[in-house]
Amino acid sequence: MNIGDFGKGHDETFFDLVKALDLVEGIDRFRISSIEPNLLSNEIIEYTSKTEKFVPHFHIPLQSGSDEMLKSMRRRYDIALYQDRIQTINKLIPNCCIGVDVIVGFPGETDEEFEKTYRFLSELEISYLHVFSYSERANTTAVRMGDVVPKAIRKERSKRLRLLSHKKKRAFYEKNVSKTEQVLFEANNEDGMMVGFTSNYVKVKAPFNPLMTNQIAPIRMTEVDRDGLMKIEFIEKHQLTEHKLIY
Fold first, then answer.
1. Residue 92 contacts by C-beta under 8 Å, 6 or more apart in sequence?
2. Which residues contact 29 (CB under 8 A, 6 or more apart)?
3. What is the distance of C-alpha 26 from the center of its chain?
4. How far apart are CA 175 and CA 148, in angstroms?
5. Phi, psi at residue 83, to the nearest 5°?
6. Helices (H), the chain
7. Low-confidence stretches of the chain (pLDDT beneath 70)
8. What is the reported pLDDT for 142?
9. Pick from 140, 5, 172: which is nearest to 72 by CA?
10. Cα–Cα distance for residue pair 35/7, rounded to 1 Å
11. Which domains occur in the chain, in start order?
12. How far apart are CA 28 and CA 38, in angstroms?
């Protein structure tokens, strides 16, 4: 399901939904977790940049940094449009977290096409990648295509992009050190620690406190630990209140 297609065939759009959700009482955070770039209009980006309920985090599928591969995948956008959306987000929401889906090993992806993807993502101001290795599925057009990429090459390409993702995420977290934020804490007790997420999707950790479950609290981010999580300190005494959110 593509959330950006909401209202297709009817007299409403995803942007209409965004504006309606912004008026809902009792829900403090909305996160647009996956939307294709052609459906994430600059109008939507500008609107969410001015609201308090829509948090500064987008997850935008790319799949490939090669226009030739995007055509083979039957995507409805090209890399120029994708780059425009990323630049618009970074201009209007400077500390926004931007996640990207990418597929390696799609039939016909040569070394040259993969390098286009790698270079494009390297130069793009994004925060992390979700990397998927192409796998054949019955009853799809792709499974009937030639130019199959060997699984060993898919694995190697996936490894390179995961390493790139690690670097991007680390750089994004480091950029947030010393900043203050609001964190929503989760319920799991992991070896005496609990985790939560800032509005811009930085994962933080703190000593487990059952009273903090599903609560929001103001914090300052202090350093990124060896596991890639953000250490924090609470910046003031605060009134804990139940917090609701929708992804």
1. 45, 46, 49
2. 53, 55, 184, 199, 243, 244, 245, 246
3. 25
4. 40
5. -60, -40
6. 14-21, 42-49, 67-72, 79-92, 111-123, 151-176
7. 1, 7, 9, 137-146, 236-247
8. 53
9. 140
10. 14
11. 3-176 (3.80.30.20), 180-238 (2.40.50)
12. 27
Q: Residue 84: what are its φ and ψ, rounded to 5°?
A: -60, -40
Residue linked to tokens 């620690």: 193
Q: State residue 247's pLDDT score.
A: 45
What's the CA dihedral at 163, 75, 115, 41 to 10 degrees? -70
Task: Give the burial class of 226: count Cβ atoms within 10 A of its Cβ; 0-12 exposed, 13-18 middle, 19 or more buried.
Answer: exposed
| Tokens 């670097």 -> residue | 167
Smallest CA-to-CA distance from 65 within 53, 55, 75 is with 75
pTM: 0.90
Residues β-bridged to residue 231 = 205, 223
**What letter does residue 139 receive in the DSSP assignment?**
T
Q: Show the tokens assigned to 236.
A: 């003031």
Closest by Cα among 43, 122, 128 to 89: 43
Query: 55 Cβ partners below 8 Å, 6+ apart?
Result: 29, 30, 31, 199, 200, 201
Please count the residues of the chain: 247
